[in-house]
Amino acid sequence: MAKGAAKRCALPVAVALLSAASMAQLGRNWAFVVGVGDYESEAVSPIPFAVADAKAVADALMRNGYSADSVVLMTSDVESGNLRPTNVNILERLEALSVQIQPQDSFFFYYAGHGITREGRHFLATTNTRLSTLATLDVSTLSVEALGNALKNIQAQRAVFLY
């Protein structure tokens, strides 16, 4: 099965499981959806469907029990502001969500964009990604380590991560 087909199958299952589990516990459904298809640096190739995929995921979540005010959608077609998926904006939004999400809630994280591995370290590319050195990756991407630290603060009882 192709990777894209696997993702298309996994998403409806994840949404259904989270929605059913959340309704049983009466917690709230939260989602953080990121789509990075275009990058400021020409050294990072665009991903034609990343933004459309992220928007489709957010729409599917809202059609399946997630309220619009509990779905954060960050896409690279946003020109500026705190919904543009830079590394800093993503971390700040996750921090803000960590205060709102309660233990009885559900949390869904979705990322569509480039992944980068350099010198044994892993990164998610953001709109402001610079590839030149490990030091520039540290300050211009979302390291999996930084993402993990941010997600540790989210106290949701149930969580699904797709990236």
Ordered list of secondary-structure elements with their pairings:
Layout: H1 3-25, E1 29-35, H2 50-63, E2 71-75, H3 87-100, E3 106-112, E4 115-118, E5 121-124, H4 134-140, E6 142-143, H5 144-152, E7 158-162
Parallel strand pairs: 1-2, 1-3, 3-7
Antiparallel strand pairs: 4-5, 5-6
Q: Would you kindly provide a brief summary of this structure?
A:
With 163 residues, the protein is of the alpha/beta class.
Describe this structure in words.
- With 163 residues, this protein is an alpha/beta fold.
- The protein has one domain (3-162): 3-Layer(aba) Sandwich (Rossmann fold).
- 41% of the residues lie in helices and 21% in strands.
- The protein has five helices and seven strands, in the order αβαβαβββαβαβ.
- The strands form two sheets. It has a four-stranded parallel sheet with strand order 2-1-3-7, with helices on both faces.
- It is globular, with a radius of gyration of 15 Å.
